[in-house]
Amino acid sequence: xxxMQALSIPFLLGGFxxxxxxxxxxxxxxxxxxxxxxxxxxxxxxxxxxxxxxSVYEGxxxxxxxxxxxxxxxxxxxxxxxxxxxxxxxxxxxxxxxxK
Amino acid sequence: xxxxxxxxxxxxxxxxxxxxxxxxRELLYSSAKIASETKxxxxxxAEQAFLSGAQHTKLAIRNYTLTFFMLFAFWVLLSGxxxxxxxxxxxxxxxxxxxxxxxLLFANVRIGDIRIMFKRFFAAAPWFLSQIFTANLHVAYLAxxxxxxxxxSILRFNTKLESDISWVALANSxxxxxxxxxxxxxxxxxxxxxxxxxxxxxxxxxxxxDKIAHVFMEADHIYIQDILDVxxxxxxxx
Amino acid sequence: xxxxxxWLGMGLFFLVLLCLYRGVFGPGVLNRxxxxxxxxxxxxxxLLIMGYIYxxxxxxxDISMVYALLNFLGTITVAKYLEMSGEI
Amino acid sequence: xxxxxxDIIIRAVxxxxxxxxxxYALYVIMHGHHSPxxxxxxxxxxxxxxxxxxxxxxxxxxxxxxxxLKAGIFSASGLLIYSGIxxxxxxxxxxxxxxxxxxxxxxxxxxxxxxxxxxxxxxGVGITVMAVMFSxxxxxxxxxxxxxxEEIKEENG
Lengths: 100, 238, 88, 157
Description:
The complex is a heterotetramer. Chain A has three helices and no strands.
């Protein structure tokens, strides 16, 4: 195992931790909008960290740049799809949960 | 006796300081106003020139070539094969796509100087990344804590940004920063779902909006950074 | 390192199963769409990890990119459809 | 699905993404012989980019960029490329789609001629799949009504 492969491990573990947090949030939060908080934020950073870790593991090649490009794409796409689906919920008249 | 003299001099000193501060503030505001006025004038002139035909074709050609080169760079990244046959295929397909959608990638007329935007974007990136990291730690804390201390509310605010790219940047960074997601936009009014009362007050300061307006060079607004730039020039002139 | 990738992939698979609870039982179609979008995001990383296990990353990276693209497109289309129909 | 969305965010993101999606689709079509993918998959991605344009920019703008007539012409011409290459092989005295014989007119060795022939067939398949996917989506979103039909109906009374 060389130094690049060792460097990738913390990134991958961090990505896994944020994936775990996002999933637990998706399961535990009380309503749809708060669940979107979990997936919209958690998955974006988790994917970013995981893909950076994988491209660091890959080293310097075209494939690593492609993986980073997927990361950039997800960075743009994930908040946008979160916004689209939450906007659909708002237009359909879904009321947000409030604390009693 | 000596004490009164001292107090009087102190008072006078404060007065002078106050006066100087007011003057400086006026100067800064007027300079910033002049700067923004010249900017809007320039934008208007560019728009007029854009309406006349020659400028239009020039802009179309510029869009075409810029799109072509961006797409070709993307093709080389994807393909990874640098022999003549694949490069020829790449040139042909980039020509086709830039013919099909040359007006999509650079549809925004108001966009500023790209080099400056890139520089400012990379200067602002660490702040955004740190915000995203804090946001995720916050969500992880909320999701994993047993009591789950949330108190959701919806707040709305009007934005002063104008171009669509900066709207995208604002909406996406609201979604990615702690405790808030953009859920709807109606006629320039942002509806933001905040998971906590505390983060709702954080958003009202408009710090993020200023940063995005600065990065994307929104024309008609006075930003703090520009005032600081102008003030340095005025100091040198004096 | 192969073992590490294997365990990571299995962990992500476990998370996909957890998300599937929302996808199957989650009240309403909106929760299901959110859960499926989350599953798609995890699948993208699982595909890349599978590529490293099989030593064919250059192949799996293309599949992963298509998966990211179709995940985004599907979410946008369903959101648009729900918005036009106006009811959940 | 037929209206222009009033959401600037989705529209701007789609506007930035669509050219890259299209170039990616062409990459998948043209590198079908040494990476996953090929004509069908690339055609689906290319069609998906036009569908993304339709659902974000509305029916009218999509019609200006890619009308029903153009989609029909594209699907027919893709089929023409495919069967034309096959017939060319047939004419040169071999089986249908046996690309090795193309070496007679392309002036290359048979292996390379096979590669080029497969590339041509995949381009044809990709164009057809793109046009057919797009016209199916068009039919779903308009309910099968084409503006020319309505004009004819108005003329007849």
